[in-house]
Amino acid sequence: MPLSGPIQATADSEPRAGQGGFAVLAGRLAEIRGRIDEARTRGGFKQEVGIVAVTKTHGPEAVSAALREGIEDVGENRVQEAIAKMVHADPAVRWHLIGHLQRNKVREAGRFVLIHSLDSERLAEALDREALRLGRTFEVLVQINASGEASKGGFGTGDVARIAERLKSMSGLRVAGSMTMAAYGAEEGELRASFARARAAREALHAAGHPATEISMGMSQDYEIAVEEGATLLRLGTILFGARETQ
Description:
- The structure is a single chain.
- By secondary structure, the chain is α/β, with parallel strands linked by helices.
- The chain has one domain (25-241): TIM Barrel (Alpha-Beta Barrel), CATH 3.20.20.
- It has eight helices and eight strands, in the order H-E-H-E-H-E-E-H-E-H-E-H-E-H-E-H.
- The chain has helices spanning 25-43, 60-68, 79-86, 121-134, 160-167, 188-207, 223-228, 238-241, and strands at 50-54, 73-76, 94-97, 114-118, 138-144, 173-180, 214-216, 233-236.
- Strands 7-6-5-4-3-2-1-8 form an eight-stranded parallel sheet.
- Helix 3 (79-86) links the parallel strand 2 and strand 3.
- The longest helix is centred in the last third of the chain and has 20 residues, at 188-207.
- The protein starts with 24 loop residues before the first helix and ends in a 6-residue tail after the last helix.
- The relative contact order is 0.17.
């Protein structure tokens, strides 16, 4: 049975940065949450599903709009863009780093409640050193290149067991689960296969002794399938806020 398509981003339905902000967010979010519940029922994993509002390229007003609608978790791709918004944001906002973290920006890691993009052993080592320096523990997700695309970072599915063991020696890190990005525009079967690999990676991390309760996968174009395949965190941007109007 084919899935219902995602809410489409169109010029009529989606707010633009210069068209009065995010007045329709509440209605859109209610529809998305309804679709999430339906997808969770179809998938049968009975997992709790959280939304991380991705405000990339939108201003601080997007963060405020999300918080007003009860979304405390906000994701940014770039450290510097996140920091610029943190200055204006309510302290209740929980910041997630969903993009690649350069090792020269590891000292900013403590600003985030969850780093979705642990994509190399060298980054893991750098984060572990910084966490120990601060006397803290960083929550991280192991990024899995489940689609096998050369353009995507992360660990291959065949590397999960090895990195799971390696991470057990890093007391500054708490491995909360796995993350993946499916190939954009992929057919449903390919999407499901990628998401199933990320789910298997989460299970392998858990079996190795890590907490690993979370699977961060699913974006505006494929979140329903991701929920059916066990996603616990959805990274939603355009479907919530619309496309930012270029100048």
